[in-house]
Write a structure and sequence with these properties.
By secondary structure, the protein is an alpha/beta fold. It has a 5-stranded parallel sheet with strand order 2-3-4-1-5, covered by helices on one side. Helix 5 links the parallel strand 3 and strand 4. Helix 1 runs parallel beside helix 2.
Length: about 325
């Protein structure tokens, strides 16, 4: 993958191409966007161009043939560091010190520059961020540091202020549908079903396309949402069993629930039925919109975001889901 092959994100890609062509790369970048939007793909393509042995002055594209390009493709380039972390939801100060702070003073092994990519940068705890800050304040001239984050507001202002900030934008439904059909060979009828649930996120669209049970799971999610407001907590056990049977699928269901409440919010705000993601369930959504206050819809959306956070923190899923369902029901009039 090179910068010319990135789909969409024109403003971000143009900025990076201009920096390369002019030979004026910043020493710290922050690429922000939700998971699945291609942050790491863009960062690696940028790094490939920075480190390419054959790229000439005034050019921005890596050659794809030289030793450096092959090393990046196989994940073995000595001057490209991608920060890893052991805990699923935290990057510790020791990991930043070992992989970045203590390493930047070692000069590049084979290229004029050295590139560090920090995925999930928002997971750095405050001590880790403060340790990185010292490096961002006075980095060696040969270093380029690229922070990737889902939410830049989770990073200290002092970190953000020392980076060139590049925010990824949702892609249009037309671009996602065309990509699904041409690159992933998804039939037209199925790509049309998938695209509205992608919310402008190509990675999410590709993930949905790879799920054979997408339609079945979507119907299950709708059934839960239509009935949770009318049931007692002891009746939720079957749903919770379904959701926890395969924990890898829980984020999908949470996304479906979020889409449901966004539709309710849109209906409450007077949006046309055709703009709903669950347009075929417009009658149920209209009824719920009439029985939820605006403030209560926001409480349900907050409950979903909290559930997502708690699940990532390895809180017992049954407890998280029960509490989430209880908010859905108890705020319903």
């Amino acid at each position: 993958m090179n910068l010319d092959q990135i789909i969409g994100q024109t403003a971000v890609i143009t900025h990076l191409k201009n920096a390369l062509s002019r030979g004026k790369m910043a020493q710290a970048y922050m690429i922000s966007g939700e998971d699945g939007m291609g942050k790491e793909t863009i960062a690696k393509a940028f790094a490939a161009s920075i480190l390419c042995e054959e790229r000439k002055d005034g050019e921005y594209l890596n050659c794809g043939r030289c030793r450096s390009c092959h090393q990046i493709e196989t994940g073995n380039h000595p001057d490209l560091r991608i920060v890893t972390h052991e805990k699923p939801n935290a990057i510790t100060v020791d990991e930043i010190r070992t992989q970045v702070v203590s390493d930047v003073d070692i000069r590049p092994y084979q290229e004029p520059r050295k590139v560090y990519i920090i995925p999930d940068a928002q997971m750095m705890n405050e001590q880790a961020q403060n340790a990185l800050l010292k490096t961002l304040e006075e980095p060696p001239a040969y270093v380029v540091i690229i922070l990737l984050c889902a939410n830049e507001n989770m990073l200290l202002q002092t970190i953000r202020s020392r980076c060139i900030k590049l925010a990824l934008s949702p892609l249009s439904e037309e671009v996602i549908e065309d990509t699904l059909q041409k690159q992933y060979h998804i039939p037209d009828y199925r790509s049309k079903q998938i695209v509205k649930f992608a919310r402008g996120n190509l990675g999410r669209a590709a993930e949905i396309a790879g799920q054979d049970d997408f339609l079945t799971d979507m119907k299950s999610a709708v059934e839960m949402m239509k009935n949770v407001v009318r049931t007692e907590s002891y009746e939720w056990s079957g749903w919770i069993d379904t959701l926890t049977e395969d924990k890898a699928r829980m984020p999908f269901f949470l996304d479906m629930f979020m889409d449901w409440y966004r539709d309710i919010l849109m209906m409450k705000s007077g949006a046309d039925q055709n703009r709903l993601m669950f347009s075929e369930e417009s009658s149920a959504i209209r009824e719920e919109a009439e029985n939820y206050r605006f403030s209560d819809i926001m409480k349900c959306i907050d409950a979903l975001e909290l559930a997502d956070t708690r699940l990532k923190e390895n809180v017992k899923p049954e407890l998280v889901l029960t509490n989430m369902f209880r908010v859905f029901r108890d705020t319903y009039e």
